[in-house]
Here is the input.
Amino acid sequence: MRRNAASLVLIMLVAGAVPALHGQGRDRGLIEMPSRELRSGFYFTGALGAGREQCKFETAPCGVLDANGNTRRSNGNTWRVPVTSPSFALRLGGTVSPSVRLGGELFRWSADNGPTTESTVGLLANVQLYPSRRAGFYLKGGVGYGWSTVDFRDGSKATENGFMFNAGAGYDFALTPHVALGPVVDFYQGSYPGSIGAEALTERILFFGVSLTLQSGGRR
Here is the structure.
């Protein structure tokens, strides 16, 4: 009788120890590493699309030229007729937090105007704000310097330069932890004081495009 009781106790002890040992091994195997944020590290964004440009001087719109270089008659509006042409933007910077990115931006627009070629370049410091840490929508803005250039047929050129600002929005659809694709809409405006005795020039460009973003960090 004593032998049977001792055997029963031994069996119960072994049965209780096996799950405990198994649980210890399982706990070690299920240690979870914290997931990385949706946005982190350095980033590079390239955007390609179309820019709708208008400009004006203090008292008249910019000239629209015919094929011979003659100025066409103005319709009386303050801004000249919009000119839409392919444009691009490049952004590079770092992720301060999952909701904030800081960086620099290069923007360029160019189009033919009669026998001349007009181009605008902006170099700005910008910030991107993401209202939601888990979604790709963002607002952006920046300030910097802009150059508005006219290249003539004879090889000469004229350039105005001055303050430029930007405001826009976009959305990043994550394709992989390091790659995102999405739409972007940006507004750029440059104010160029002009040379002595010349009227100041103001130029605005509305840009619609598609952006591709690469980042060094990202969620696993």
Q: What stands out?
A: The first helix runs from residue 2 to 29. The chain has one helix and nine strands.
